[in-house]
Amino acid sequence: MGPGAEQEESAEIRAAFARPSTPLPPPPGAFARIRRRAAARRRRRVLTVAVVACGAALATVTVPAGFLTDRLGTLSDHFGSGGDGTGPPAERVVPAGDPPATGRSAESPRESSSGPARTPSPRPSDSSGPPEDEATGPAAPKTPQCSGAILALSRQRSEQAAGSRYMTLRLVNADGPACTTRGFPGVSLAKGPDRTRVGSPAERSGGPGERITLARGEAASFVVQLADTGAYERDRCRPGGADSLRVYLPGRRESVFLEVNGLRTCTAEGYRTLHVTALTRS
Question: What is the pTM of this model?
Answer without folding.
Answer: 0.51
